[in-house]
Amino acid sequence: MSVSLALIPVALALRAVMHKDVFDEWSKSMQVIVPTTIETEAELISTLYKSGYDAEKYGGTIKTHLNNKEQFFFWEYIDGKWHAIFAKSDSPAMLETFMCDLEEKAQRQIFTGSIHQEEERIGQDTVQTFPTNFRDGNILVRTLKEFGVNPIQGANGQITCNLQGTYLTFRQHGDAPFSIEIKNPPNLHDIFLYISDLDEEYKRCVQAIVYEKLKQRAAEKNLLIESEEIMEDNSIVITLNIQG
Questions:
Q1: Is the pLDDT reported for residue 122 higher than 50?
Q2: Less packed terminus of the chain by CB within 10 Å, N or C?
Q3: Does the pLDDT value for residue 66 go beyond 50?
Q4: Cα–Cα distance measured from residue 221 to residue 223, given in angstroms and rounded to the nearest whole number
Q5: Rounded distance between C-alpha atoms, residue 142 and residue 32, angstroms
Q6: What is the end-to-end Cα distance of the chain in Å, rounded?
Q7: d(CA 67, CA 71)
Q8: Domain spans in the chain, listed from the N-terminal domain onward
Q9: Which of 216, 238, 236 is nearest to 225 (CA)?
Q10: pLDDT surpassing 70 at residue 120
Q11: CB of 139 closer than 8 Å to CB of 155
């Protein structure tokens, strides 16, 4: 599966903090998929080269650059046809210009879908939702406070906070992890980094709580902590000594 996002390394870092199926579902929701009439890889590459565009093989996909190589998208083979996989954050006008230019130079219809239908929906989509691995609301509130923001937890478990003028809303349905709703996100790159950093801080808080509970239980069972060692991955190895 390809991920059409501005910065692939950041997207991969975000995938590392999410369950794979959750990340895949989320990344698909961030894509605009436009089908074509092209059936073979050779035909796709030939059409792109003849029209002045590049075609780099990228795993099982093909990568094409736009806007003087400042941006790119992927082509993916789905159900016997090649599809253009654009990102929602891409400019619809830029994508339409590319699609029209490719068809004009190839002198035939290539795309069987349109960005226009997506453009209206994208323009109205002012709230974006991102999945997380956060399951405990109390730990999440503690994490946000230690992260430097002032969260407000409602009676329904909903958590809201303001991050440099951007409002974040954390919602949880049943036992599922929290999701983050962000109104008018200013920059996807910054959001990815924030979620990744928040995930690390959440894990640290979970570790601290487990550590304190372990010390408490050790004392209750008359066990003495003989040594503590912090490992390279920031995990803690505790050696207990049974008292006679």
A1: no
A2: C
A3: yes
A4: 6
A5: 37
A6: 59
A7: 6
A8: 8-124, 127-216
A9: 238
A10: no
A11: no
Kindly tell me if the per-residue pLDDT of 148 is higher than 50: yes
Give backbone dihedrals phi and psi of 26, rounded to 5 degrees, phi first: -65, -45
User: What is 127-216's CATH number?
Assistant: 3.30.310
**How many helices and strands (H and E) does the chain possess?**
7, 12
- pTM for this predicted structure: 0.47
What is the 8-class DSSP label of residue 118?
H
Q: Is 62 exposed, middle or buried (0-12, 13-18, 19+ CB in 10 A)?
A: buried
Percent of the chain with pLDDT over 90: 21
Question: CA 191, CA 198: separation in Å to the nearest integer?
Answer: 10
Can you tell me which residue has the tokens 């605009």? 32
**How far apart are the C-alpha atoms of 39 and 44, rounded to whole Å?**
8
Whole-number Cα distances in Å, 205 to 139, 145, 200, 210: 7, 11, 9, 9
Q: Are 48 and 54 in contact (CB under 8 A)?
A: yes
What residue type is assigned to position 62 of the chain?
I
**216 pLDDT above the threshold of 80:** no
